[in-house]
Amino acid sequence: MNGLFLVDKPADMTSFGVVARLHRLTNQKCGHSGTLDPLATGLLPILTGQATKLCDLLTAGKKRYVGTVRFGKRTDTEDITGNVVEELPWNFTEEDLRRVLPRFTGQIIQKPPIYSAIKVDGVPLYRHARAGREVQAPERTVLIEKIELLSFDRERGEATLEVDCSKGTYIRTLFSDLSRALETCGTMTALRRTRVGNFSIEQAVPLEELMQALEQGKAEPFFVPMEEALAFLPQYQPEDFYATLLRNGCAVAQEKLKALPDGLCTVYHHGSLIGLGNKVEKDGETCFKVVTHL
Fold this sequence. Notes:
This protein is of the alpha+beta class. It is built from 8 helices and 20 strands. The longest helix has 12 residues, at 15-26.
């Protein structure tokens, strides 16, 4: 079983918890493609078998989230699971909010929350925080392609926004920084991921439904084969002789191969997926090699 399940993760469950449940039911090596915090719901691709090698590739694409921020309070986790550490008044209009949004598009610098899985000295930040150790969260540059206001409830002091962003973006930190730009503070109260790369929430199945299907041996409609998951990449089918070399890990000179795609591609031989191929430099010569065998 080499491929992935597109899970609609429920709230109050870790991504690892989802992986553990599916590992138990499939008896396959499993991994997730992009962590979701326990508070968050939505699309969580779970890779199985050889597809676990594709985690970095499948998490590199754009993410889309719909999240809600409540203004006037800030917690130590930057979401409602934490302890309130700051309260400030707020007095702005929807027009004021819309005016600051362009400041948070394009490449921006984030300082992730102390309660996050980013490692410092080999230890996740949240463990430092729980141990009472003061460490500096490393800043990182992320890309916000779009941030759109979906609704604003002035009476409740809440806004719901849709965000298209790069891997590694912390939406709760984005909402906290946005609140600062409005001269107040804020806390994320809800988050739902609706897209990961080429996959959307419409393709996902609720976790409980998937678990039931697996127990009954009826999960095939919910399974995405590895070949289908990689359909966005160009395909290359070498001649038999070179396919054997590539399958065995050899690098083949570029000039010997016909119609070789540029960049990363899938390599097939008689309909069988060998792996992911790319050009490499070897002894000063441009060659082609299967860089990930599947």
